[in-house]
Amino acid sequence: VQLQASGGGLVQAGDSLRLSCTASGRTFSSYSMGWFRQAPGKEREFVAAISGSGVTTNSAEFAKVRFTISRDNAKNTVYLQMNTLKPEDTAVYSCAASSNPWGGWSLNYDYWGQGTLVTVSS
């Protein structure tokens, strides 16, 4: 599985942005998908995950209100809608795929895409 993230950019505080991650292959719905981010000088942190069917989602506390993860299995794409962005959301956002299709908090991710940079100015 190859993953390609896109949609990052430079935005102002309060703006919205939608990230996309497109996967290769024909079994996209067999994978749970996750979004992670890594800010400069910090460790990578979990943002949100979604099960293969899209029924189950999990989000980090900071993402529960402002971020929404979704997927379109017909397009082999997972999305991260980010609203009311803050400067502290500045990070490289990466997507990952887990061969466990059921979603959840403690997934092992088997495939990682390169990140897309989100910069939020104040």
Description:
By secondary structure, this protein is mainly beta. It is 0% helix and 48% strand.
What topology does this entry show?
Elements: E1 3-6, E2 9-12, E3 17-23, E4 32-38, E5 45-50, E6 57-59, E7 67-72, E8 77-82, E9 91-98, E10 111-112, E11 116-121
Parallel strand pairs: 2-11
Antiparallel strand pairs: 1-3, 3-8, 4-5, 4-9, 5-6, 7-8, 9-10, 9-11
Short structural description:
Helices cover 0% and strands 48% of the residues. It has 122 residues and is mainly beta. The strands form two sheets. Strands 2, 4, 5, 6, 9, 10 and 11 form a seven-stranded mixed sheet that branches. A four-stranded antiparallel sheet has the order 1-3-8-7, with no helix packed on it.
Spell out the key features of this protein.
single chain, 7-stranded mixed β-sheet, 4-stranded antiparallel β-sheet, 11 strands
